[in-house]
Structure prediction request, 109 residues.
Amino acid sequence: LLPLLPAAVAGLTGWVCLSRDLDERGVVQQEDTLQKLLCELCGALCAFNGLRSLTLTFALSSSLLRHAESAQEEVKHSLQQLLLTFECAGLERVRLPPTYKRLIVDLSR
Prediction:
C-alpha cells in the first residue's frame, strides 16, 4: 500500500484546499477535516522519521526505502500546501499536539 500513499495524500490535500473556496455548505469545516488531515499527515511524517532509525537495526529493502522516501516527500509537500492555503483561513484555530506543532513550525521555515 505504500506506493499508493503519495496519490492518496495529494488527492485529499487537493480536495481540502479546494474546499476552502468551493465548500459553500461548510462540510469540511463542520467535520474538522483540516485538523484531522493535519494530524494524519504529521503522524505519517513522524513515522517516516522513525523509519530511518530502523534501517540501522533491520535490513529493509531498497524498494521499501524508495517508496517511503517518495511518500515522505509527498507528505511534506502536502503539509506545506495546507499551511499556505489555510494560513489566513482558519489554520490558527486548529488544535494539534505539541509534537505536531513543532513539525509544522519546522516545515514553515
